[in-house]
Design goal:
The structure is a single chain. This protein is mostly helical. The protein is built from three helices and no strands. The chain has helices spanning 8-12, 22-47, 55-80. α2 packs antiparallel against α3. It is flat.
Length: 89
Amino acid sequence: MDHIVTVQDAVTAFADFMEPTAAELDAIDAEMPLILADVDLIDAQIITLDWLPNELDARRIRRARNRVLSERRALANRAAGVTLPEGAA
């Protein structure tokens, strides 16, 4: 009879090193408005899966898509304003 042994120690042995850094957490925070806008767009699209979208559904999707585009533009503009050290590109 073979015993099944857990490999939790092997899997979680490096868990302390796998934590996100402060810079990565800051990047997630900066992208959070875009992430939430994407979630809203997906929610609006999911609502219309069961039936043909009516005018209200179409407006909801259009507003959500515009919000995603707006957040992407804002994120790109913020990223373009960041200067890298020593003129790196």
